[in-house]
Amino acid sequence: MTMHPKERPDDLSRREFLLRAAGAATVMSGAGGLLAACSSSTTVAAPTSTTGEPLGPGGLPLARPDKRVTLPRWEDPIASGLEPETGGTFTIFNYPDYFYKKLLKDFGKKYKVDVQYTAFDNISSGIRRLASGAVQPDVMEMTPDNLDLAVASKLIKPLNLDYIPNLQANVWPELVSPFYDGESRYTVPYTTYATGIAWRNDKVSEDIASMPQPWDIFWESQAYKGKVALLSEPRETIAMALLRKGITDINTEDPKLIDQAIADLKELYGVCNIKVGDVQYQAVPEGTSWLNQAWTGDMIAGYIYYLPKGTPGSVLSYWKAEKGKVPIQNDCFSICTTTKKPVLAHLFLNYLLDNGVAYTNFVDFNGYQPPLNEIDPAALVKDGVVPENLANSVLTNDDFGPDSLQEMTLTARGQQLWEDGYSDFLAGGS
Amino acid sequence: MYRRWLWPSFAFPGILWLIVLFVVPFYAVLAVALGSVDPVTLLKPVPAWNPIDWNVGWIVEVLHRLAPGGSFYGVAIRTLEYVAASLALSLLIGYPVAYYVARHAGRWKGILLVLIVLPLWISYMMRMLAWVNLLQPEGYVNRFLTFTHVLSRPHDWLGGHSSTVVFALVYGYIPYFILPLFASLDRIDRSHLEAARDLGASPWSAFRHVTLPLSKTGILGGSVLITLPMFGDYYTPNIVSPTPTTSMIGNQIDLYFHGGPQPTIGAAITILLAVFLTGLMAYYMWTIHRAQRAVGAVGAV
């Protein structure tokens, strides 16, 4: 059989095989040398201050509820008295379904812009997308524990509070110049919430709130196997295991404590085949989850939106620990460096702190409580906005302060420690 | 000159496509896996584009975790088990379907093929979410099974079971298994089977000695098509069984890439998974090559 010169024979002769094998061996040995010449490191440098105090991203000090931090402004805020920009689009970067679209439409109408809502899965991935340039929003949701990162990376702009009078006028004093952002240089607060336990009291027989340590219910939930879930949030999950053991330093970077927390969490595989996810606001009211770690806002939103027809609101229960033992948090809004409408972005921050806007967003849409003086917790229950059995889902300004617990920024090493711990839990054991 | 370059130039779009959408992204992941993280912000990975700057620490770290006793060992073995079980089930279900459509469907062949492909018209995510509704305790699956007395009471399919994940993987990927297998079976020259029968082979023997060996490339092609995405899948267990005990290695990649200070670990797992899958691909290529040679030899005779 003859071959065209362009056709290559498929078979290798013994000689060719030996030649090629020798070539491959040479390349492989070279690769070995190359790899050997490579460095081998898996630690991220954790900067410390001159006094040896651990620092966060960008060498910024780590804020804690009892340790106020005022972040440096990396550029001057915009000048006062400028006219807002009009026309084009105005983009809000936020969790999905976390702002009432009708209110956004109203804002767009008022300032003659087309308001777009771009969603992220979680704040970490949102910040990563912003840093990569994949999105160019005008304003975005921010959390205090990610603030250092956003400022160090110059992803958000310093604020000119002259444009945001509602901050001083309407917001709880504790969050006007909060401990994580002294002088409110980069953020305004948006919503508040605490982390606790939500359950269907028609399915779960225990009186969880009366237990000596209510978090123990997850470790005693054999009867509810397949219907028990934790939040899909590394910080919240591990913090819960720490709190159960009476450890209130939920920003600890002690490997022994984290290892113990992970070992405790792993026990839940066998106890209840624990699930993880962030659909508790829907799963508990609908009864697909009976016992769930949950944020306060979830139950209010769940009560408003997800209770199936014919299911009374009284089947929902919620527990959270008292101040000093309960993780609390507040979400914020910031102006992104990518904004082309900085004045309008300031006005949007002022808009979301308007009493009427914030209240409507809360009770008609997302269920997460804004930190406004005008909202009377007692009235929320009295007016039926929040059912009596969920009254402890409502927060007050007293819940915040130096003796509160808040998950905050960790050092580089701490972040690695928590992430690896959560990965170990998520791997599901052997 | 013109003739010399005309036909090779036809490969240019494909080569460009491969370079832009495969080689460059793959090298980017490799550069991240062998790079570091911005120490100032901990936000951005710092890819090591130059091999001289490569840092193998993350790869070594992941290899340690994948070793017995390491934190990734269990999830890696579980992933292998799920993919193997899904592949076996796909073969068990898909082969008879492909065989029937190729050999016995007659004028219904076109319609049956459309029906096989039909689920792919809906996004994978939507189909999985639909199953979440169907598999609810009060869903249609339980209603049907209790009505027909297959089950005495509703089963908690979504309570975190390996079987649910395997079922979902099979459901999601099986059309991709059937199609190449169908093409392979459809191409088999009937005269080979007739010759086998003429020489006294029973139907089963003819199938075993003629059809099955000649459809081996189809089986392998379908297997490669479905196992490659299955190994990296994370959304299927997330949707139908969001428990750590049924998570797959893709969930770890997702975790490390989804924020946090170690995207390098996510990239390192991806690279090691790719190396493992390359081994499978090499076996596939070798088998195809051997089959082509065998067919060539038959042709020469």
SSE layout:
The complex is a heterodimer of chains A (430) and B (301).
Chain A: H1 14-37, E1 89-94, H2 101-111, E2 114-119, H3 123-132, E3 139-142, H4 147-152, H5 165-170, E4 188-200, E5 228-230, H6 234-244, H7 255-272, E6 275-276, H8 280-286, E7 291-295, H9 296-305, E8 316-319, E9 328-335, H10 342-352, H11 355-366, H12 377-382, H13 412-426
Parallel strand pairs in A: 1-2, 1-3, 5-6, 5-7
Antiparallel strand pairs in A: 3-9, 4-7, 4-8, 4-9
Chain B: H1 2-9, H2 12-33, E1 36-37, E2 45-46, H3 57-66, H4 73-103, H5 109-117, H6 124-134, H7 140-147, H8 162-187, H9 190-198, H10 203-214, H11 216-232, H12 235-240, H13 249-257, H14 263-300
Antiparallel strand pairs in B: 1-2
Helix pairs in contact in B: 2-14, 3-14, 4-8, 4-11, 8-11, 9-10, 11-14, 13-14
Describe this structure as you would to a colleague.
The complex is a heterodimer of chains A (430) and B (301). Helices cover 34% and strands 12% of the residues of chain A. In chain A, strand 1 (89-94), helix 2 (101-111) and strand 2 (114-119) form a beta-alpha-beta unit. In chain A, helix 6 (234-244) packs across helix 13 (412-426) and helix 7 runs parallel beside helix 13. With 430 residues, chain A is an alpha/beta fold. Chain B has helices spanning 2-9, 12-33, 57-66, 73-103, 109-117, 124-134, 140-147, 162-187, 190-198, 203-214, 216-232, 235-240, 249-257, 263-300, and strands spanning 36-37, 45-46. A two-stranded antiparallel ribbon of chain B has the order 1-2. In chain B, a hairpin with a 7-residue loop joins strand 1 and strand 2 (45-46). Chain B starts with a helix and ends with a helix. The model of chain B has no long low-confidence stretch (mean pLDDT 90). Chains A and B meet through helix 1, helix 3, strand 6 and helix 13 of A and strand 1, helix 3, helix 4, helix 13 and helix 14 of B.
